[in-house]
Write a structure and sequence with these properties.
The protein has 141 residues and is α+β, with helices and mostly antiparallel strands. Helices cover 39% and strands 18% of the residues. A 4-stranded antiparallel β-sheet has the order 2-3-1-4, with helices on both faces. It is globular and about 35 Å long. The chain binds adenosine-5'-diphosphate and magnesium ion. Adenosine-5'-diphosphate (ADP) binds next to loops.
Length: 141
């Protein structure tokens, strides 16, 4: 089994698209291994996105990520969970994302793009530990 970490972001929580997104994720062959509703603090959001600290969009990204509770999850997939979920999400910019991807269907713009997904195995290991305790996980790493 392979795993990845994802977040349903504030815009998709506020416009109530989260149910449809979870349904699309399930229909694409992913299984939920963990799920949690979290209200990010500014400190936690800055830490989570620390690699973007010097980018021009950083402040806007942090404000956005703290604007509403988000749904954090770990997904299982038969193989290549990280790549498979990135493909399901589509391009960072919903306008450039392929039709039928989560960002094309549910994202508003390049900041409010509905979902996050780990971009590598290393990111997955860093990111799930941000939100879940080892003993909470429903799988063996
Ligand atoms: P991804 O989420 O596709 O891995 P990045 O890691 O590059 O994309 O960026 C993290 C998040 O920062 C994006 O999902 C998006 O919410 C926001 N973001 C990225 N690029 C921009 C941009 N040019 N302008 C505004 N927000 C951006
Ligand atoms: Mg990224």
């Amino acid at each position: 089994m392979h795993f990845t970490f994802g977040i349903i972001k504030p815009d998709a929580m506020e416009n109530r698209a989260y149910g449809k997104i979870l349904d699309d994720i399930a229909m694409a062959g992913f299984q939920l291994a963990e799920l949690k509703l979290v209200k990010l603090t500014e400190e936690k959001a800055k830490n989570f996105y620390s690699m973007h600290e010097h980018k021009p969009f950083f402040d806007e990204l942090i404000r956005y990520m703290c604007s509403a509770p988000v749904l954090c999850f770990v997904l299982q997939h038969e193989e290549n969970a990280v790549e498979a979920f990135r493909a399901l999400m589509g391009d960072t910019d919903p306008k450039k994302a392929e039709k039928n991807t989560l960002r094309a269907k549910y994202g508003k713009d390049i900041t409010a793009n509905a979902v996050h997904g780990s971009d590598s195995e290393e990111s997955f290991m860093r990111e799930w530990k941000f939100f879940f305790k080892e003993e909470e996980l429903l799988f063996n790493k």
